[in-house]
Amino acid sequence: MSVFIYGPPQSTYVRTVRMVCGEKNVPYELKDVEFGSADHTTLHPFARIPILRHRDFILCESSAITRYIDQVFDGPRLRPEQPRERGLMNQWVSTVNDYYYDVMIRSLVLPRLGLAPLDEKKIAAIKPRLEHQLGVADKALGEHEFLACGELSLADLFLAPIVAYVMKTPEGGRTVPGYANLVRWMRDIMERDSFKSSAPPL
Ligand SMILES: N[C@@H](CCC(=O)N[C@@H](CS)C(=O)NCC(=O)O)C(=O)O
Fold first, then answer.
1. What is the homologous superfamily of the domain 3-72 according to CATH?
2. Global pTM value
3. Closest ligand 1 atom, CA of 97?
4. CA nearest 137: which of 111, 116, 166, 110?
5. Which of 80, 106, 201, 85 is closest to 162 using CA atoms?
6. 136-187: per-residue pLDDT in tens?
7. 112 C-alpha vs ligand 1 centroid, how far in Å?
8. Structural domain spans, the chain
9. Atom of ligand 1 nearest to the CA of 63
10. So what CATH class is 83-196?
């Protein structure tokens, strides 16, 4: 085995990296790392996950990791070649990391899963932002089959694990079905082997 992914399978970022490997048929081993330990900070100076080890090469940050895997390994290309499509893909990865993750995972999913303090008022307050974000993704998915273009790209693999968690919350259960394009896209993604084989434990 030449590829190791460090981080717990519950993490959406870890799932994104696993899905990238899955889509490209890259065998990998998932490894645990004790948060904040010396081993962890040796691998990642800011003590985050995921971390990739490919032979003697260590790489942090999911954006860098996923692009590296796509470039180094054969298999379907996950970064479109056309500049506008590539631009949209990069835009999506950036917005998912900077906006979607914050609203959907930090503000909604983690409190609902009991992994962060639960404050119903705060959850109610993020509803407009949640709906706005779902609407933006739904609009893009009405224009092409996948987020950035007509082909699966890294953009989809960053957002899908997050939406999968949102759908398990009461708020997601109520709102997501109202976005038909998003529902169609999510249904298709959920059928993919890369999604099934990276399912986090309950
Ligand atoms: N910018 C990082 C973010 C990764 C990240 O925030 N990972 C979370 C888990 S999903 C983490 O390591 N959290 C630990 C912490 O915040 O201390 C990336 O894209 O890899």
1. Glutaredoxin (3.40.30.10)
2. 0.97
3. 19
4. 166
5. 106
6. 999 999 999 999 999 999 999 999 999 999 999 999 999 999 999 999 999 9
7. 19
8. 3-72, 83-196
9. 19
10. mainly alpha
